[in-house]
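Request: Mind sharing a record?
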Amino acid sequence: MFKKIKPEYLLVAFITLVGAILRVWDLANIPLMNDELSAIFRTHYDSLGELFEKGIKPDGHPALVQLFLYYWIQIGGENSVWIKLPFLLIGIACIPLTYLACKKWFNETASLLSCTYIASLQYTIFYSQLARPYICGLFFTLLFIIYWTKIVKENKYDFKSLALYILFGILAATTHYFSLLTIAILGVMGLYLIAKEFRIKYIVWNLVLIAMYLPNINIFLHQLNTGGVGGWLAQPSAMFIVDYFDYIMHFSWWVKCSVIILFVWGLKNIVENTMVWFFFIIFALVFLVGYIYSVRINPVLQFSVLIFAFPFVLFCLFGNIPNIKPKLSLTLVLCILCINVSSLINERQYYSYFYKSPHQEILQEANSYYETAKQKPLVLLFTNSKFNTYFGEKYNYNFRYIDLNLYADSFNKFIQDTLKSYTGDKLIYGTLSSEDPTWLPYLQEYFPYIEVKKDYFIGNYYILSKTKPNKVVNDILLDSVLNPNPIISDSLTEWTTAYEFQIDKILKKPNNIIDIFYEIESDSIIANASIVSQLSNDTTVMQWREQNIDIFQLNKSKFLAIHSLNMADTKQLGNNLKLKFFLWNKAHEKFCIKQIRLKVRKGNPLLYGFYEKI
């Protein structure tokens, strides 16, 4: 006879099924992201030695996932479904593992709630769909927690428990350095929980775990000395942890309120339930180590690296909740799933937003337009050159384009040399967030009308036109001439008139772009002058930027200089900012400033929307 299955297990199975559907939805169209494409390119080596030297050591992550991808791609190729499949399965497995890990310390209700949030939050769904170390690290960390619990709480020192404890510890440690940090802190904190008579045995087996990790120490030290990913990451702001919780709760008051209600429900037990405080301390230590290291040594802290300690957040939030009957648990789970999934789809626009990779979408849009256009447009792309080649070969794109990466240091000269001789009416312009925001207004000196604008995460696609089309995208919010009369700058002038504005008075949205135009008349080329801008609060200059005037010649004696500020990149500077700008005539040259214009244009609301509120 079959044993009756506990209602809680059926509910875990249902939650897991919902989580699986959310992860594999429209599987064939889940895009490959930047990090994944980079990881794929780093598998194109002929030997393991070359893989370790060129594909693993420069990456800033331990070897395990990159080594796995190297063999996985050899078996099944570079199809995106094949590459993502093991990570999706691991992400689905994290749902019941969260239940098991939580159940060992708390009751069924707390465990069901924890795995419900693991199943339905964008945070864990996204990293389950990403072929990178994050979901693997969470998976191995959860398994480590389960066997760590068997040792410190249940005093199980049988061979199987110890072997799996060491195995999952090694796998977590070689997946990501923050999963290594998480299990290291958990291991040390275990000394607080372990019974005195087992303490020596516990220490010995952890020393065995450390000894088995030692073969990886060369990679660790190499990546530590070279700085890993810290060369391109920004330092975390003082509001990082607030932004983190905002992000994992979808920036949604519905999600936040449901979490707050559940947390308040269990508050009466918070004093005597010491394990909630224990897991809070572990998460806090992981965060603080990452934050202090990022601020003082090298910036490495991101939302992604806290995913390994994220289960401890759930344990803290729901560990105090009293156990309730299965029918009530089902009702509660259904309510949470409805709130989270609705927020995921409607507020976060996850399946319409994340499923559009800018690299792929820009190429696809350009190719479609190029194939149907009677007069072939000029196509300028400031996107990743390797990714362009990869997708071009994969989808047989055959349009011609100019790679602006080759001309990034001489953009003004390039567009003048190219566009002066170009007689076509249309220009396609595809770009990533690393673009200099002055490039679009310079292009619009030749192609003033925006016929099409499409926004993506970290990217934009434009069709620009010389002649006014039937439909024009008007993204100008403010256009103001600041000088009623020409301004003469001569040998006695080093700093021209400064203009100052309160940022919140001129912006409509925090992601708007400010363009400052100086139209200059001179008998000779201006050799050494620059536009200076500064953003400050009431007491401190928060950002100071100087941009040399690159020669952009309007006619024989007129020149144009543009200085642009993408305000989406200034969030970390705080609120109540003032903008001040002026022209710095370093060489005391003689020229006339005919016109100074201040423009504010719409930015890309999706530019960083994956990690910020849309």
